Amino acid sequence: MHGRLKVKTTAEQQEAKRKEREKKLKLYNAGTKAAFKKRENGEYDEEGLKITGEILAVNPDFYTLWNFRKEIFVNFLQTRETDEVQKIMENELYFLESCLKVNPKSYGTWHHRTFIMENMPKPDWDRELQLCNTFLDYDERNFHCWDYRRFVVMMAEVSLDDELGFTTQKITTNFSNYSSWHYRSKLLPMLHPDPTQPAWVQEDVILKEFEIVQNAVFTDPDDQSAWFYHRWLLGRGKKKQQISCIHASRKTKRITVLLTRPIMVGRGNSLILSIHGKSVAGQWKTPTGSSSFSVLWIKDLTESIPEEKEVSVSVTLIPDIDKDTQFSQGLQIDADQEEAWVMADFKSGSRFSNELSAATSSTLETELESIKELHGVEPDNKWVLLTMFSLMMAIDRTHSIYMLEIRECIDQLIQVDLKREAYYRDTKSKFILQSILETQDKNAREMSLKDTGLTALYHTEWMLLLTSIDLSNNALSTVKSLSNLRCLKCLCLDNNHLKDLDGLQHCHQLSELSVKINDLNSAEDLYILENNKCLVMINVYGNPLCRYKDHTTKIKKNIPSLLSIDDNKCTSAPS
Fold this sequence. Notes:
This protein is of the alpha/beta class and 575 residues long. It has 4 domains: 11-234, Protein prenylyltransferase (Serine Threonine Protein Phosphatase 5, Tetratricopeptide repeat, Alpha Horseshoe); 243-343, Sandwich (Immunoglobulin-like), CATH 2.60.40.1130; 353-429; 443-569, Leucine-rich repeat, LRR (right-handed beta-alpha superhelix), CATH 3.80.10.10. The chain is built from 16 helices and 18 strands. The chain has helices at residues 10-40, 46-56, 63-79, 82-102, 107-119, 125-138, 143-156, 160-173, 178-191, 203-219, 224-234, 361-377, 382-395, 403-416, 421-439, 551-558; strands spanning 193-194, 197-201, 243-249, 254-263, 270-275, 278-279, 284-285, 294-300, 311-318, 327-333, 339-343, 446-448, 468-470, 490-492, 512-514, 537-539, 564-565, 568-569. The strands form 4 sheets. A 7-stranded mixed sheet has the order 12-13-14-15-16-17-18, covered by helices on one side. The chain has a 5-stranded antiparallel sheet with strand order 7-8-4-3-11, with no helix packed on it. The radius of gyration is 33 Å and the shape is elongated.
C-alpha cells in the first residue's frame, strides 16, 4: 500500500545479510592481501598503518598484522623526528583503546600497547593507569588487563602501599574479586616480609588480613575467592632440606638416600657418595628410573661392598641454590651386617610440617574459633568445613588433640560434596597414614595397615625400611607408590580393588605376595612381575582371572621364580 514502509521477509533479510557478509569478506581479504604485499616489499609507512588498522578494528586478534605495525613503528623510530613519532604513537594508543572495546581480552592488542609504551618518547603512565582501572571496572577478572597494569605500575614506579590500597578498594567493592585477592598475596610478602621467613608475612599483618577476609566469608560463605585467600594466609611451612635416611645393602649392592624435600639430581643438585672416604662414581636414579624430582635416590654399585670388615659410607648433598650449604650423613656397616641404615631424628609432629601452616599456633587457634562460629551458622558449607579441617591439621601436628573432630569433618565433607567424594576419601587416607607414621618407630621393619579404610597411599617414602606390610581389607585401586619400598619382602594386598600391580615391579626384593579377592582379570595382569627374581610365592585366589583353569600355568610361565601359587606348590612351566 502507498505510504507504508515495505517490511522485508525473512528470506529477503537473510539474502541481504549474506550479500553484506560477502562484501565485507572481499574488503577484508583485499586489505589482508594489500598488507602482506606492503610487508613483503618493506613498505613501512602510514598507508600500512591505515590498511592494517581497518582490519584490526574488526578483528583485533590478527597477530601477523600487529607484528607488521610493530615493524612500521620501529622504522619510524629510526627515520622520523621525535615529536612526529610521539604524535603517531599517541594516535596509536587511541586506536588500541578502540580495539580493546571490541575485544578487551585480545592478547595481540595488550602486547602491542606494551610495545608502544616501552618505545614512546614521552609516555603518560598516569593515563595508562587510569585506563587499566577503567577496564577493570568493566571486568575485574580480565587477567590481560591485570598483567598490563603490573607492567604500568613497575614503569610508573607506583608504590607498593598504593597498590595494596588499590586491592583493598576493589575487594571492598566486591568480595568476589579473586584477582585482587591474588594480587594482594603477591604484594604482602614484599611489603611486610617476616624476618624469620623472608618469603612469608609478618605475624601482626597476617592477623589484620584475617580480619579482612573474615568480613568476606561471613558476608558470603559460599564465595570461593575469599576462602582461597584465607587458605593462603594459613601458609605452608617449608621444611629445611636434609638427608633423612641412608640405607646400604651388601646383598643388592645398592645405596638408597631419603631427603626431606624433592630434588632432581644432575640439574644443579649433586649427591656425592663416598665409601671409606673415596668418591664412588655412578648414576643416581629414582625408584622408578624416571627423570623427575624425587625425595628418594638410589645408586647401584658396580662393585660389591667389601665383606668381612667394617665399611664407612657417607653421602653429601650439594643444593643448586646455595653451593656453600652442604648436607652430609654417614653410617657404618659392620663386618657381619648384610645391611645398615641411619634414620635422622625428627621432632614430634614435624615430619610432615611442609604440608602444615607456618603461622603461629595462637593465631591459628583464634582463627579456628572464628570459623567454628561460622560453622554453627553454616553447618553444611564445604568451604567452612575445609577450612576447619586445614586449621585443625595445622594446630594439631601430632594428630592427638583433634583426631575425632578431623575425622568427623572429612566424613561430613563426603556427605555435603558428593562430587568430590573420592578426593575427600583420599584426604582421609592421607590423614590416617600421617597419624600412624608419626607414632611408628622410625626403625620399624613391619607395619599393619589392615582395615584402615585406605583408598590411596601417601608418604610411602617413609616406609623405605619396611620388609613386611599388611594392606588387606582396604579400598586401594593402585599401588604405584609402593615402588618406594626398596626393602619390601612380604606384602599382603588381599581384599582391595586392584586391577593391576603397577609399581611392584620396582620392589626387587619382594618374595611373598598375596593379592586375594581383587579385580585382576587375567594372568597378563601379573606379567609386570616377570623380572622380580626373588618372588617365590603368590596368591591370587578370588580374582576374576581364577575362572580360567590354566591361570596358574600362565602365571608360572611368566614368573619362573615362583615356587607356590595359591598355596600350591608349582611344577615347572611347560616350555
